[in-house]
Amino acid sequence: MSDFSRRKFLKTGAAALAGITIAPNSILGMSHGHISPSDKLNILGIGIGGRGASAIRSMSSQNIIGLCDVDWKYSGHVFDEYPKAKRYYDYRKMFDELGKSADAVMIATPDHTHALIAAEAITMGKHIYCEKPLTHTVYESRLLTKLADKYNIATQMGNQGASGAGVRKICEWIWNGEIGEITKVEAFTDRPIWPQGLSRPDKAERVPKTLNWDLFLGPAQYRDYNPIYTPWNWRGWWDFGTGALGDMACHVLHPVFKGLKLGYPTKVQGSSTLLMTDCAPNAQMVKFTFPARDNMPKVAMPEVEVYWYDGGMKPMRPKGFPQNKNLNVDGGGVIFHGTKDTLICGCYGRKPWLLSGRDPKCPPVLREVKETHEMDFVRACKENASSRIQTTSPFKEAGPFNEMVVMGVLAIRLQSLNQELLWDGLNMKFTNIAPNATIQTVIKDGFTIKDGHPTFNKQWTDPINAQAFAQELIKHTYRDGWKLPDMPNN
């Protein structure tokens, strides 16, 4: 009997004995081996009410065996779509009960819980699809990168543009030397489209019966429930999200990171509208400086400055940009300033074009993805680990990229130091924050109008050591009961 026939026989027999449709691939010892394309993965979905609903639907040709969300009202419509999937509030209980049966895990929870869930699933040998931003902190990104390598699993971050034709064309043009040397890039998003720039609510409200508030908080420090936090609006709150930069830079800056072969930035500066203690500001600007990289055969890769804008701010229109043409395409845009030409694209790398009007035909340099971003992940899960064709945003690439993004968030939160910050990416630390430097942020702006006169009576935090504050942002101290696995030595 051939190996394939034996597996089919075992699967059919096991299914008949258990009274289920399909035997879990992991039980058959196939989690890291070849799975026939006709076989279906057993997938667990965690965080399914918002973006996760779309992600799990994109994998619905597979077996969705378990679904988890802390808010059963918000996610109820998704639970109803998969009546055979077992329902959970707590992903840890789902792992205990269904972990041995699962092949892959889809994660679309708030940013601050991505790393905890993904790290545990990776150590169980599960393939991981995780929405962007990959993690909440630099340390968490480094951890997932190393864990994924150690366990040799298939991974994909949910920046869907990575699988699009636009990113492929951008890389073709840049690597073929069509733009020339690029020393400046400007990028922006039209987000936030959720509340930002807010003070922390004073009033605690009753937690809805359908929401497990403690599980929503997860590793974050305890705070009373208020409907301003969830669902979805958590993106603007520092403890749970990363603001417009963390959310959208993973889409907008991906073709920049990949096309220019960027690694760790060496310098960063941040500026914003009023910076609050608990909530991201309404608008932000960040400047990253990246060192020169190894030259490519047809183009040099000199030091490059990358500028980020959000909250309604955009770069100035380059000379020759057509009048009445919007820079914003699908939520943002990028301008690559080259010595030969100017390359412009939208969010996700969509609709790239050259200011000169040329449309160069260049040799292909990246694999064409003919399925969806999510189904390309499914394809990778089924391939043998030793010969797997990587997804378009594996943690090997998405991890370092996400480190850059969330380090930019730190530049915003450290802006009151009034200095350009020097970054040691390898060791995950700023190198020029003085040992005795302190930092304060605004708790409440105290804005009032009396007799027509505006007044700001700002309430500030006590001064705290800036080095300690930065370290806490780089690697969080989790609430009791929550812990990450150790960082691998590899």
Helix-strand layout with pairing:
Elements: H1 3-18, E1 42-46, H2 51-57, E2 63-68, H3 76-81, E3 86-88, H4 91-98, E4 104-107, H5 111-123, E5 127-130, H6 138-151, E6 155-157, H7 165-175, E7 182-189, H8 213-217, H9 243-252, H10 254-259, E8 267-272, E9 284-290, E10 304-309, E11 332-338, E12 342-346, E13 353-354, H11 373-382, H12 395-413, E14 421-424, E15 429-430, E16 438-439, E17 442-444, E18 447-450, E19 453-456, E20 459-460, E21 464-465, H13 466-474
Parallel strand pairs: 1-2, 1-4, 2-3, 4-5, 5-6, 7-10
Antiparallel strand pairs: 7-11, 8-9, 8-14, 9-10, 11-12, 12-13, 14-15, 16-21, 17-20, 18-19
GO molecular function: nucleotide binding
Pfam families: GFO_IDH_MocA (PF01408), GFO_IDH_MocA_C2 (PF19051)
Protein name: Oxidoreductase
Biggest sheet overview: 9 strands, mixed
Compute the number of helices.
Answer: 13
* Number of domains as seen in the coordinates: 2
Instruction: Please indicate the percent range of residues in DSSP E strands (runs of 2 or more).
Output: 15-25%
Shape: globular
| Amino- and carboxy-terminal Cα gap | 40 Å
Helix/strand structural class:
alpha/beta
The number of distinct β-strands equals: 21
How helix-rich are the residues, as a percent range?
Answer: 25-40%
List the uncertain runs.
1-24, 26-32
Mean pLDDT metric: 93
Strand order of the largest sheet: 13-12-11-7-10-9-8-14-15
Give me the oligomer status. single chain
Radius of gyration: 23 Å
